[in-house]
């Protein structure tokens, strides 16, 4: 209860500050070099499940607060930090959901403690970036510090943000792409016209295995992307490849192996109303993995259809083929409707269906009904 009270007080103060800033034209820039921002999000989800005798159909909620600060001493330099605080774990609480994938992909209360096994709490990212500008459409950015690989790779215009788009882990990013978060690393971003190459290298504090099998590992990833407008709207086409050092146990627990994955992530606007996206990925199975392949895609329906351009509806489906562990395959369907109250506040209604088809034993399935409220400032 103490954690809830502290976070509630922080959220009340933050929301009060948002109203003050909004009254000044949403001016969260303290001056031309220093700015603050962030997000407050709360969600409640109810699961109605079958074929899962050790789990109950019940509802749970969670709230997160992620403030961030940016300092740009010059047009080419930026210092950035993001923090995270949470109250409750929702259905992601251990032992509360029978599903392998999280019904809300956000970092929740337990994720903000001992981050990446570094004995660091609350500080998610803290980095410095310098950008070399060769011309108006030709730049090279170099970033170093505590970073999140997902900020540089596997972006998607319609399926990439658990606070404003899909909630299910399968539709936010490719869960078999193992993009790590919140540890020491560097990123390179080269952009020329509509073409870009991004590379990320990170030294992670833990592989999240238990006991004697736990150890640090290195991550390496690269993304090649092209942005183009065919006349219907902008499209983004990405190829992502990534791998790790040999730090993950095989199924027998007798040898350490690498994780390796290749993925495509496309999004295309189809006029003022519709947008479409896909994300396909294939992972090597030398190490013990839940999913070998992922095939997801969906549609985005803009609020322009009913005269509210800030609203939208998202429809997504995912089929994930199991790896060498217990799951044979997982199917995920999700539809959400997001209603923007103003430039800051939005409310989302969300419905998901999930089924984990297991190789042996129970194969849980069920519906998850959710409500999400966010304040982005």
Structure overview:
Strand 2 (58-74) and strand 3 form a beta hairpin. With 377 residues, this protein is mostly beta strands. It has two helices and 19 strands. It has a single domain (2-376), classed as Porin (Beta Barrel), CATH 2.40.160. It starts with a helix and ends with a strand. It is globular and about 60 Å long. The chain has helices spanning 2-23, 169-172, and strands at 34-50, 58-74, 77-83, 85-87, 123-135, 138-148, 181-192, 195-204, 217-229, 234-244, 248-249, 256-257, 260-270, 274-283, 291-302, 312-322, 327-340, 345-358, 365-376. The model is unreliable at 1-27 (pLDDT under 50). The strands form two sheets. A 16-stranded antiparallel β-barrel has the order 1-2-3-5-6-7-8-9-10-13-14-15-16-17-18-19. A two-stranded antiparallel sheet has the order 11-12. 7% of the residues lie in helices and 54% in strands.
Keywords:
mainly beta; 19 strands; Porin; 16-stranded antiparallel β-barrel; two-stranded antiparallel ribbon; 377 residues
Describe the secondary-structure layout.
Layout: H1 2-23, E1 34-50, E2 58-74, E3 77-83, E4 85-87, E5 123-135, E6 138-148, H2 169-172, E7 181-192, E8 195-204, E9 217-229, E10 234-244, E11 248-249, E12 256-257, E13 260-270, E14 274-283, E15 291-302, E16 312-322, E17 327-340, E18 345-358, E19 365-376
Antiparallel strand pairs: 1-2, 1-19, 2-3, 2-4, 3-5, 5-6, 6-7, 7-8, 8-9, 9-10, 10-13, 11-12, 13-14, 14-15, 15-16, 16-17, 17-18, 18-19
């Amino acid at each position: 209860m103490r954690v809830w009270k502290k976070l509630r007080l922080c959220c009340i103060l933050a929301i009060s500050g948002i109203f003050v800033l909004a009254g000044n034209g949403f001016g969260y820039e303290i001056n031309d070099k220093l700015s603050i921002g962030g997000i407050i999000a709360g969600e409640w989800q109810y699961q109605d499940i079958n074929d899962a005798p050790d789990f109950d159909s019940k509802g749970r909620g969670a709230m997160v607060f992620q403030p961030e600060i940016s300092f740009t001493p010059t047009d080419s330099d930026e210092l950035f930090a993001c923090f995270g605080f949470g109250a409750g774990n929702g259905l992601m609480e251990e032992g509360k959901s029978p599903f392998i994938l999280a019904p809300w992909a956000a970092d929740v209360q337990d994720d903000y403690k001992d981050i990446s096994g570094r004995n660091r709490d609350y500080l998610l990212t803290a980095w410095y970036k310098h950008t070399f500008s060769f011309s108006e459409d030709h730049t090279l950015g170099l970033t170093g510090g505590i970073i999140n690989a997902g900020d540089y790779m596997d972006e998607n215009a319609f399926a990439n943000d658990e606070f404003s788009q899909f909630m299910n882990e399968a539709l936010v990013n490719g869960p078999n792409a193992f993009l790590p978060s919140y540890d020491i690393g560097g990123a390179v971003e080269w952009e020329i016209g509509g073409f870009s190459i991004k590379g990320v290298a990170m030294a992670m504090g833990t592989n999240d295995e238990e006991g004697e099998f736990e150890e640090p590992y290195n991550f390496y990833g690269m993304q090649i992307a092209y942005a183009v407008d065919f006349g219907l709207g902008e499209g983004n086409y990405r190829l992502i490849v990534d791998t790790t050092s040999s730090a993950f146990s095989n199924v027998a627990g007798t040898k350490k192996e690498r994780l390796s994955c290749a993925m495509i992530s496309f999004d295309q606007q189809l006029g003022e109303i519709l947008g479409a996206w896909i994300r396909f990925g294939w992972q090597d199975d030398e190490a013990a993995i839940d999913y070998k392949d992922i095939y997801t895609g969906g549609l985005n329906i803009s609020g322009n259809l009913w005269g509210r351009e800030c609203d939208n509806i998202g429809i997504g489906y995912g089929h994930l083929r199991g790896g060498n562990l217990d799951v044979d395959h997982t199917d995920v369907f999700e539809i959400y409707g997001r209603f923007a109250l103003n430039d800051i506040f939005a409310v989302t209604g969300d419905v998901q269906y999930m089924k984990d088809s297991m190789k042996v034993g129970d194969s849980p399935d069920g519906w998850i009904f959710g409500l999400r409220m966010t304040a982005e400032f």
